[in-house]
Amino acid sequence: MQIKDSFVINAPQEKVWEFLFDIPKLGQCVPGIESVEVVDDKTYRGKLVVKVGPIRSEFGGTVTLTEVDAPNRIAGTVEGDDKSSASSVKATFTGTLTTVAGGTEAAFQVDANLRGRLAQFGGPVIAATAKKLTAEFAKNLRAQLES
Amino acid sequence: MIKFLEPTDFSEATSLLDQYAEEAKVIAGGTSVVMMLQQKLIAPSVLISLGRVSNFDFIRHEKDGLHIGALTKLRDLELSEVVKKFCPALAHTFSVVANIRVRNQATIGGNLSAADYAADPPAMLTALDARAQVQGPNEKREIPLSEFFLGFYTTALEPNEILTEVIIPALPSSARAAYHKYTSISAEGRPCVAVGAFADFDPDGKCLDLRIAVGAAVETPQRLMEAEAMAHGHALTDELIAAIAEQYAQALDPLTDVRGSAWYRREMIRVFVKRALQEVRDDR
Predict the structure, then answer these.
(1) Closest CA in chain B for residue A119
(2) Residue-range domains of chain A with CATH
(3) Which of B72-76, B109-113, B257-261, B270-274 bottoms out in mean pLDDT, i.e. has the lowest?
(4) Which of A49, A56, B54, B58 could disulfide-link A32, Cβ–Cβ 3.0 to 4.6 Å?
């Protein structure tokens, strides 16, 4: 499954990039994040709670950066699982920052492979949830960066 | 271990819900909740069963419309002479939900509160302008169904509220309704596209009012007021019906799942909006 989205933040590209690598601050902007820990400069471990109606899943996992081209582009992988629903996710992602008229455009693309009971939910529910989470993340990011 | 609580009325049920908050899940017929429990998609520590709440399995035709208690089984609605007389298309809608075993167990309140996008009643009830009466620990309120479904499995119910009654406004004697369910996998399957239509006509056959809600192909039942307004003051000719169906096919943003791709659903929306409109026009 592929998820693609983008949003514009009214702040200079360098500032956005810096913020995205300030992990504790970034963590506060990710909706549902319970914990985030820096293992080394390419590896992060975290816990994320995602709710869809009555369904609550708690994913623990690792993000590994495979490419860092400051302040333009990152790429990496995500591996995680939700023990209660016996579901796991493996994903690769790329993210880019581009200077545009209104500030900086942040765009990302995730190719995710979800297995287990949550997977039966199917693409539409997951895609819609990703969209909502992105919108919330962008809102939080703006609140931090546009002040 | 799940604690199983059996309140005997809605005020007790809502105070329990208020007390246990997110740990609790309300269960009525159980056709949706039990499935989620079995698949371990939800893990509540408390189940608040509505099985012992009495007097909420009623179907009453009153002056202002049809009142249905939230704990009424879909099978009873399908067979009810009151429902058939009030709106045959509504009785038909309940008769095509899943299979008889599910309908003997599932309740209308549970069906709506689960907010499963691939369900039959939401589209028809939205087209009929139904309202949900809900009760919290301190007060009752009404939510129009058009504002009740917020997204996948998500409703406007507050965490401590329970749906208690569904009210469908009185229908003029000159009005007609139709429900078209399209299944792409098996006859008793969930809908790929669901279309509920309601229309009222003047004595010359000109359309006074038209409401069409498309469900199952989209996240929540969708009406397009602009497309509906195209019919006002006009007879529902084949050309007009085709134009309205085209609007629905173009403007809605269908989803892709195991029952059909977005492209396929768009084609089927066009077909089934058309058929539902032909039925409200021709079925006198």
Answers:
(1) B41
(2) 2-145 (3.30.530.20)
(3) B257-261
(4) A49
pTM summary value: 0.89
Q: Considering only alpha carbons, which residue of chain B is nearest residue A128? A: B152
CATH homologous superfamily of domain B175-282? CO dehydrogenase flavoprotein, C-terminal domain (3.30.390.50)
What class does CATH assign to B59-169? alpha beta
pLDDT digits (tens, 9 = 90+) for B243-275: 999 999 999 999 988 899 999 999 999 999 999
Residue A53: left if φ>0, alpha if ψ -120 to 50, beta else—which one?
Answer: left
Interval B273-281 mean pLDDT: 97
B23: Cβ–Cβ under 8 A, 6 or more apart, which residues?
B44, B45, B46
Please identify among residues 247-276 of chain B the ones whose CB lies closer than 8 Å to any CB of chain A: 255-258
Asked if A129's CB is within 8 angstroms of B39's CB, the reply is no
Closest-CA residue of chain B to A54: B42
Which residues of chain B neighbour A128 with C-beta distances below 8 Å?
Answer: 151-152, 219, 255
Q: What CATH class is the domain B3-49?
A: alpha beta
Q: Which region holds residue B153: left if phi is over 0, alpha if psi is between -120 and 50, else beta?
A: left
- CA pair distance B130, B148, nearest whole angstrom: 10
* Cα B24 from chain centre: 24
Query: Predicted ipTM?
Result: 0.75
Q: Does A131 touch chain B (CB under 8 A)?
A: no
Is B40 in the A-facing interface, judged by CB distances under 8 Å? yes
Domain boundaries along the sequence of chain B: 3-49, 59-169, 175-282
How close A11 gets to chain B, by Cα (Å)?
Answer: 32
